[in-house]
Write a structure and sequence with these properties.
Layout lengths: L18 E8 L5 H11 L5 H13 L15 H6 L6 E7 L2 E7 L7 H8 L4 E7 L6 H12 L4 E7 L8 H17 L4 E6 L23 H7 L12 E3 L2 E3 L11 E5 L5 E2 L3 E5 L3 E10 L2 E3 L1 E2 L4 E6 L10 E4 L5 E12 L11 E6 L2 E15 L4 E3 L10 E14 L10 E5 L6 E8 L7
Parallel strand pairs: 1-3, 1-4, 4-5, 5-6
Antiparallel strand pairs: 2-3, 7-16, 8-9, 9-15, 10-14, 11-12, 11-16, 12-13, 12-15, 17-21, 17-23, 18-19, 18-22, 19-20, 19-21, 22-23
């Protein structure tokens, strides 16, 4: 929705969750790092010694003002070039909520870094320069945010001071973005006009834009309800480590350690171990020396089963009444991250999914995204750096998975080049109806 002109999207009346993870997105030079710096500065999250160091760094950088972007652009190359290269994570808290920020690069060359930063986010801040409007990288990042399952988008129309705080540029950009979001099937969209440099509508309401009556950015971040990230699909527990102490007093102990990827799972629940299909029930749940009755995502726990069955790293313990899919044929949307090679049919890779690693072969590149039109082109061209497309894969061993839209943890994977050990793609598993072989 567009605020007075652009009010925020309907906020949930329930209490917000304790932690919000959000990522910045947008084109290069739209002011993402400055926005994060301003958010930290105006919410009083910067200590005096940090501020003094920032002032010195700003002088060394040749700025006539305190350059808040330097708070997140920490690498020497970033400061020299004035761009963000790597994902920078920042942590802060207000009396209402805790936050983890992933400040992602805007340059096309570093789109793969944006995927990394947004992969765990609940909300994405998409910045647009009020003078330039929606550009190709804005569309690419909005599409990726949707593809990565981010349910909440916040459009920050930045640098409003450079257009005289006029309402018309903001209206036009907000309307175009809302149209884009509707084609991406993203419905929780909030539009906010801001000036990160001057602090307008970041923490404090701006006197320069009386026509805007929606929330400030911080107000929206504090109250938005993000819900569960793993979906309601039943218990999911990828086994990371088998714990078998050698000390005599614990010689009968056998536990399976890992991070919950869905739930809840409770003592007494019937479970199935995949891909073997063996059944048992949960005899105990341990956490840091304490016994629990229940575990939920994303808790790290150790499960004990009632039966002595073969369970190892890469297996999945799941709810017997709601198990994940098991198979070797996958269809997935991937973001290609390699600048050394293209993704072509017939190529072989290592596929890492939860705690399991298997070999995989690309059967076909089904289509790839046209960022300008958001159409999927079926021209059979290979995927190159930063391309997004749908592929078909077959693995040498079965995977236990859910579609990504249902569970982000069990629906995602990465592809690794065996020769270089480089991560070459990030993938999101989709529904498919082609046969197994």
């Amino acid at each position: 929705m567009v605020g007075s002109e652009a009010t925020a999207s309907d906020a949930a009346t329930e209490a917000p969750s304790e932690l919000l993870r959000f990522a910045t997105a947008g084109s290069v030079d739209d002011g993402k790092s400055t926005l994060i710096g301003r958010l930290l500065y105006d919410s009083k999250q910067i200590f005096q010694d940090q501020l003094e160091a920032l002032e010195r760094a700003s002088v060394e950088h040749g700025d006539e003002y305190v350059n808040l972007a330097l708070l997140t652009d920490g690498l020497r190359a970033e400061r020299e070039q004035g761009i963000t290269i790597d994902v920078a994570y920042r942590y802060f808290a207000t009396p209402k909520r805790k936050f983890i920020i992933a400040d992602s690069p805007g340059h096309v060359q570093y789109t793969r870094n944006m995927v990394t930063g947004a992969s765990t986010a609940d909300l994405a801040l998409v910045l647009v320069d009020a003078r330039a409007g929606i550009v190709e990288q804005t569309r690419r990042h909005a599409y990726l945010s949707s593809l990565l399952g981010i349910r909440h988008l916040v459009l920050c129309v930045n640098k409003m001071d450079l257009v005289g705080y006029a309402v018309e540029p903001y209206r036009e950009i907000a309307a175009e973005f809302l149209d884009l979001a509707s084609r991406l099937e993203v419905h929780a969209v909030t539009c906010i006009p801001i000036s990160a440099l001057n602090g307008d509508n970041i923490v404090e309401r701006s006197d320069c834009m009386p026509w805007y009556v929606g929330p400030t950015l911080l107000e929206h971040l504090e109250r938005v309800e993000v819900g569960q990230r793993t979906g309601d699909v039943g218990g999911r527990f990828p086994v990371q480590l088998v714990i078998r102490p050698m000390r005599n007093e614990f010689h009968d102990y056998r536990g399976y350690a890992g991070e919950m990827a869905g739930g809840p799972m409770r003592v007494g629940d019937e479970v199935v171990v995949l891909p073997s299909g063996r059944r048992s029930r949960i005899e105990g749940i341990d956490n840091a020396g304490a016994s629990l009755d229940e575990a939920v995502a994303p808790m790290s726990v150790t499960l004990r089963l009632a039966d002595q069955i073969d369970v190892g790293r890469g297996d999945m313990i799941a709810s017997a009444d709601a198990p994940p899919r098991v198979g070797r044929a996958l269809e997935a949307m991937v973001c290609w991250m390699s600048d050394r090679a293209e993704l072509q049919p017939g190529r072989r890779y290592v596929l890492k999914h939860t705690t399991r690693r298997v070999r995989a072969m690309v059967d076909a590149v089904v289509c790839r995204l046209n960022v300008d039109t958001l159409a999927l082109d079926t021209d059979e061209a290979p995927l190159r750096l930063n391309d997004i497309g749908r592929v078909r894969l077959r693995t040498t061993e079965p995977l236990c998975y859910d579609p990504y839209r249902v569970n982000r943890a069990t629906g995602s994977f990465i592809l690794i080049d065996e020769a270089t050990n480089d991560t070459v793609a990030a993938g999101m598993i989709e529904e498919h109806d082609f046969p197994e072989v």
